[in-house]
Amino acid sequence: MTAELVRGQNHPLPDTRLEIRVSAGHPVVAGTTLGDERGRVAGVEWIAHPGSPSLPGIEVSQQAAADHRLAVDLEALPDSVHRVSVLLALPVGAGGPSRFGAAAAPFVAVTALDGTEIASYTITGLDSESAVVALELYRRQGAWKVRAVGQGYEGGLAAMLGDQGLENPAELAAAILEAVVRGMARSVASPPPRVPDAERVRHSAPATAADTAPTVPVTPPPAPAPSPGPAGGTPSGQGGPIDYAHPRRRAAAPQSPPQPAPRAEPQQSPPVPVAGDAAGWSMDERLYNQVWGMFEDLARTTAAYRSACDFAESRLDQELDRVLSDPRSRIGGTGDAARTEARAKHDELTARAQEALDRDLAQLVAESEVVEPALPAAFARWDSPVWQGYRVPMETPMALRLGDLHLPERTDLHIPMLIRLPLERGLWVDSGRGRSEASALLDEAELRRLALDTAVAHAARLLAVYPAGDFTVHVLDAAGSGSASLAPLVESGVLAAPPAAGAAGVSAVLAQLTERVDLVQMAVRAGAADALPPGMDTAEQLLIVHDFPHGFDDRAVTQLRYLADEGPRVGVHLLMVADREDASAYGPLLDPLWRSLLRVTPVADDHLADPWVGHAWTYEPPRIPVGSDVLRQVLAQVAEARRQGWR
How far is CA 164 from the centre of its chain? Predict the structure, then answer.
């Protein structure tokens, strides 16, 4: 299962023998540095680069290339090494871009030796930087993890090496680049515009946030091509037309656009949408891939439209500036005619862009109308008829619907937000007043109630999609203020125990789950999973924390952070319902906690961003239809299946 990382996010490494794959679409230099506990590099002997490609446990490429495979054996590293940083730099004199912002975003993946992806990261947000620390593998409490870094350096390789504590970084950078120049004859040429690559097609779900909130985890496709010019074309001096189609989409993603038919012939009708029209072994997998294909298609067609409009505005400004700066245009009607012509060109370009956008959106709307009714319960809205025929499943589905996403260009076109199961990170339902208009219209008490209602809906769906007995839910409600919203979970009997109240209840539940994480980790590391204490609940665990930090002392906060960091790896997950401002007394101590969770909101909010073009997507939380009893009916079936002991 692949973890789609965002900047700053970490993920455990289950293997010590790994490959790090780099795909940039243009030649880059790849290397690594070995650092101590503080990340400092002792000397040049701890750098692997094209001029010195091998170190104990590390081997890198000896040339600049568009694609790299770096071999890593963590067990072979010296004991003093606690951090392995993966570096990328643009070569000098390779005829490629001079800064990362002028090219497609680099993509980095950590894989097992059999090619199974463990974690990946698309390095977005780079501009004038010519060197970047992509990833770091680091040792923590005897276990290795990977963190997405994405730290760029305008000063290039020299600035990056100097930042890691090396002496004479400029001389060292020059020596590395000289080694690259010597091996340039062996360098892999830049590939043509990127097309779907079988190695890059993966399963995952959408990511994080426009500011400090995380990006929704999604399957990164090949990184976006240069911004389009008028009506989806490319500005002069750039490559060929850009293909904005998802790599999983059938024939709708040609490698080059079809030639237009002669004017006398009628235009070909768009393909009729079909549910499940995507690659996959099962219908659920095909629908999952189709949903995220729609997500990417919407992201890219909107990017084409916005870029075309920006191009038209820029061109209009330039032409008006030329008119104003030419004294001859101030005489007679020459200036007025030039301004009229410039605005006419602008209007034509924006009209063509709007026409292309409307065509693509209409096709996506038609596809959504076909796909939505075909979705299984785990992917469906709460108002879907599929819930009326719900039965407790025998197998866990591949993903879960957390809500919907849309863009302002078409607010009625909602794309399901699907995340992979089991959860790779916890969830945080933000009960604070955000910047959205919807939250501004609600008072504080109503916003907190909606936040807990949203958390209950998420927990109920998780219970509903797991086989009976394979998912256990605990609740911390220290102040006892959430009884009304928690009633469906309590009354149905699906909770492991009644909601824990007071400081003593908080302490007891956290101690129980912390001990479970410790025991399972020790058993896994010792290869003795069958040595767990008899009677231990081996199901996935979900802890709902309401009204944090009420009832939490320093020890409880430390335990909560531990569960957020280490719990997902051994099946213990957090669902926080909290206002970050309420915990501000802890200062930056809790910042890693918030960053480790996927933030969602109880009302519509545009805090999520995709990893391709960085659109701010509006998240719509799941809603139980007014007057519907679907939640209690589903939970009743889950409780009955548990009582019967059926799995």
Answer: 28
